[in-house]
Amino acid sequence: MKLKPIITSLLETDLYKFSMGQAIYHQFPSYKTRWTFKCRNEGVKFTHEMVEEIKEQIHNYCSLRFSEDELAYLQTIEWLHEDYIDHLQIWKPRFGDFEITEDSPCGLSINAIGTWLNTSMYEIPVLAIVNEVYFRMQYDYDELFEQYKRRLEEKKNWLVTGKYNLGPFSEFGLRRRLSAEAQELAVKVLTENNPNYKESKCVGTSNVYLAMKYKVLAVGTMAHEFIMCVGQGNPMYNPAYSNKLAMDAWTKEYGVLNGTYLTDTIGDETAHLDMGYTYSICFAGVRHDSGDPYKWGDEWVAHFQKYYDKYHDERVNPKSKTLLFSDSLDFERASALYSYFKDKSKVAFGIGTYIANDTDVPSLNIVMKVTECNNRPVAKLSNAGGKTMCEDDEYVEYLRKSIEWRLAHTHHK
User: Fold this and answer.
1) Using CA atoms, how far apart are residues 338 and 345, in angstroms rounded to an integer?
2) What percent of the chain stands above pLDDT 90?
3) Neighbouring C-beta atoms of residue 370, cutoff 10 Å
């Protein structure tokens, strides 16, 4: 490797990978998935040297193991069970699960193929590796890091002066961070200055390793992969019921713990149908990741209000529920959303690239998404057209028609 190891701990991933991982371990251990890398930036080209460095960095990542201290930390997370942590004690990434070539328009192709239990864990570290290799080898990294530090200081000062007030927010930038040191600096600066902010609080980070290191909250919900694989990976099930199947599996695993539901995998309309009174009690909130955030938030406030008006149950009072926003946020957008919703419900934010990779050069818009489950295509439709990622157009059309038929034949009460 030309660079220092980028991923140095298996905890260096987002918390929701462990939450989903436990549910996979208990309920879907035989499921198999294919994950596919995609760079959405026009004109970005990975050189041969970058691809070779990425291979070596991923190979190094596959040599890591969980330490006893790291496993002990995971035991402090109340919804993680001892048997799953025992599994992690012997778990290791497998380099043989990866196919890494230069065969793509951007010069980098990565596929990960294997059990869902394994391949789910690869997404975040791989994206962090790709991102850091690119910025270190494409630019003068030291100059970028100086730009980054100046902008981070400016962000801190905006919260101190009250130019922007966000309420509770978390750092969500691991997959697209400038570098490991940049993300660590952000977590350190933004959390240690909490006493100085006007109406904001950085409660923690999605990066479990940094949460452990800085003794802040590890934050995470679930990802689209869970709804996609649970809802679309078994041909016995109608994919228009993906949300219902995912909610069933999640509450079976966690009850009322760890309950913020990601609503947009196949569009929010079916999520509203499937989150009835019982699941509106079980889930503490919902997460926004695509589409108009104001329209989305108002619709979910109205959803909970409907059950509150009917049952007079404080467990479904919209003011007791959290709206978690996580779609391409900066402080200005988050501050406006906080002001609009803070009297209607609890509000929180997961802010990624804007915190972890803000320099004078454009950030990478890279993803690594599950594209097959059990040798069948799966798709995310979301509330924004540009986010659909599936290699089978026929399947996308089938999924859309299944949803349309269900919605057209559902009698709304």
Assistant:
1) 10
2) 96
3) 27
Q: How far apart are CA 359 and CA 150, in angstroms?
A: 9
Does the pTM of the predicted model rise above 0.85?
yes
Structure tokens at 266: 């196949």
Edge-first strand order for the sheet with 98-101 is 98-101, 109-115, 32-39, 366-373, 376-377
Residue 385 confidence (pLDDT): 61
Q: 């926004």: which residue's tokens? A: 288
Give CA separation, 101 vs 48, 56, 157, 198, 216, in Å. 10, 13, 44, 49, 38
Type and span of the H or E element at 110: strand 109-115
Tokens of 202: 């950085």
For residues 263 and 300, the answer to whether their CB atoms sit within 8 Å is yes
The tokens describing 249, both together, are 């599996």
Q: Is 163 exposed, middle or buried (0-12, 13-18, 19+ CB in 10 A)?
A: middle
Parallel, antiparallel or unpaired: strands 200-205 and 167-171: parallel
DSSP one-letter code for 168: E
d(CA 379, CA 239): 10
| Long-range contact set of residues 330-334: C-beta below 8 Å, sequence gap at least 24 | 330/354, 331/155, 331/158, 331/159, 331/164, 331/166, 332/164, 333/293, 334/164, 334/166, 334/169
Look at the block and give the residue holding tokens 């079980």: 282
Does the pLDDT of residue 49 top 90, yes or no?
yes
Arithmetic mean of pLDDT over the chain:
96
